[in-house]
């Protein structure tokens, strides 16, 4: 199934949550148009009518307006990727859903403690206590992820599913950060497999810089890239 018109995505290219939606669109080979919103691009006055939270991403597919990156990934996979990105087997789909929730509930807070302080904030505003807390939390969760990936090629089993998208995008950044990490051979193998996917390379595996100045420069350089 293809949409009747291009799907509209609102959000800047270097946003991790936007990348989840864009990677999903790329995997499904769906027509889309991305609009630079959020971060240094700001929010148009009318954006709150689409997303009262004034965050990104927001999706418009015909008459449907949807926000929250996980909901967008699930919607796209279920509507346009049934039998591929969305498994037909209910148990496999449930496991994919499980790992999406785990990513949000168990990993995101620790990861963003690191990422916000080391990359998004200037050195004078960095909270090193939060960074170290995030490093410890992520290490614990990524060891659990590594154990899961010792049992299967992907998070929900032998095939790539929507459940790999959120954690796969975050893991690419985690492995690129200049921090101490435990040995993660199975996670690294999984990431190497994801890097073979053109949509992952194009939408996710892009530079984010090593500090606030580089982040801002790369955000500006991504304007208009579809």
Sheet with the most strands: spatial strand order? 2-1-3-4
- Which of globular, elongated, flat, extended, rod-shaped describes the shape? globular
Compute the number of helices.
9
Report Rg: 17 Å
**What portion of the residues fall into strands of 2 or more residues?**
5-15%
Q: Kindly state the percentage of residues in helix.
A: 40-55%
Give me the secondary-structure category.
alpha+beta
Query: Mean of residue pLDDT?
Result: 97
Tell me the major beta sheet. 4 strands, mixed
Low-confidence stretches: none
- What is the count of β-strands? 4
Q: What is the H-and-E element order?
A: EHEHEEHHHHHHH
Secondary-structure blueprint of this entry?
Elements: E1 7-10, H1 16-28, E2 32-35, H2 47-50, E3 58-61, E4 64-67, H3 69-80, H4 90-120, H5 128-149, H6 164-176, H7 185-194, H8 198-203, H9 212-221
Parallel strand pairs: 1-2
Antiparallel strand pairs: 1-3, 3-4
Helix pairs in contact: 1-3, 1-6, 4-5, 4-6, 5-7, 6-7
What does this structure look like?
The mean pLDDT is 97. Helix 6 packs across helix 7. The chain has helices at 16-28, 47-50, 69-80, 90-120, 128-149, 164-176, 185-194, 198-203, 212-221; strands spanning 7-10, 32-35, 58-61, 64-67. The protein has a four-stranded mixed sheet, with helices on one face. It starts with 6 loop residues before the first strand and ends in a 5-residue tail after the last helix. The relative contact order is 0.15. The chain is α+β, with helices and mostly antiparallel strands and 226 residues long. The longest helix has 31 residues, at 90-120. It is 54% helix and 7% strand.
């Amino acid at each position: 199934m293809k949409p009747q018109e291009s799907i509209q995505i609102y959000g800047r290219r270097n946003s991790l949550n936007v990348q989840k939606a864009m990677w999903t669109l790329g995997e499904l080979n769906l027509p889309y148009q991305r609009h630079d919103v959020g971060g240094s691009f700001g929010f148009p006055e009318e954006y709150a009518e689409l997303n009262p939270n004034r965050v990104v991403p927001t999706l418009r597919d015909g008459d449907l307006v949807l926000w929250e990156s996980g909901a967008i990934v699930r919607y796209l996979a279920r509507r346009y990727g049934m039998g591929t990105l969305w498994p037909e087997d209910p148990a496999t789909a449930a496991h994919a859903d499980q790992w999406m929730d785990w990513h949000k509930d168990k990993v995101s807070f620790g990861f963003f403690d690191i990422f916000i302080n080391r990359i998004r904030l200037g050195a004078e505003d960095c909270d090193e206590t939060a960074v170290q807390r995030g490093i410890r939390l992520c290490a614990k969760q990524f060891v659990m992820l590594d154990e899961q990936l010792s049992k299967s090629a992907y998070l929900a089993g032998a095939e790539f599913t929507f459940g790999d998208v959120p954690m796969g995008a975050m893991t690419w950044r985690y492995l690129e950060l200049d921090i101490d990490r435990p040995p993660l051979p199975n996670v690294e193998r999984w990431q190497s497999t994801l890097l073979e996917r053109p949509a992952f390379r194009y939408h996710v595996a892009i530079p984010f810089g090593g500090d606030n100045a580089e982040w801002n420069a790369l955000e500006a350089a991504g304007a208009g890239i579809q």
